[in-house]
């Protein structure tokens, strides 16, 4: 039996497997995000039409997200395509490192981005940008003929 949270209490939604596996490595930003969700500290986020429906929710569902998440999404979409492609242009050795962190050590997407930012001297902001971490995992998974949205990646 599952129990739904009361409608007036904030809930946290994440498709990142690391949030659901005990012992996963979370970035400090992940922990801050969880704490913000508990406090209900968020702004309304308007997402593209059809997004809520893809989650099995009414299409007019409003989502609330902390400023950090809105900043991450904005940063990714405001960058030029060449810069984004440069971030993902890495070798098989880089892909092996990312796969080890994500699959073996259960790093969250933010922890992946933060670690890659440090190791590769990344230029994205914030260093723990979840969208960048997702993209890095997707690029790494492609090097192995795998899908980063499917096991063992997520």
The poorly predicted ranges are: 1-10
Beta-strand proportion: under 5%
Give the averaged pLDDT, no decimals.
75
Distance between the termini: 24 Å
Overall strand count: 2
Shape: globular
Q: Biggest β-sheet, characterized? A: 2 strands, antiparallel
Summed up, the helix count is 7
| H-E string | HEHEHHHHH
Report Rg.
16 Å
What structural class do helix, strand and pairing data support?
mainly alpha
Oligomer: single chain
Helix content: 40-55%
Main sheet strand line-up: 1-2
How would you describe this structure to a colleague?
By secondary structure, the chain is mainly α. 49% of the residues lie in helices and 4% in strands. The chain contains 7 helices and 2 strands. The chain has helices at residues 28-39, 51-54, 67-78, 81-88, 92-104, 109-120, 130-143; strands at residues 43-45, 63-65. A two-stranded antiparallel ribbon has the order 1-2.
Describe the structure in brief.
By secondary structure, the protein is mostly helical. The protein has 7 helices and 2 strands.
Brief descriptors of the model:
single chain; 154 residues; mainly alpha; two-stranded antiparallel sheet; 7 helices; 2 strands; disordered N terminus
Describe the SSE topology.
Blueprint: H1 28-39, E1 43-45, H2 51-54, E2 63-65, H3 67-78, H4 81-88, H5 92-104, H6 109-120, H7 130-143
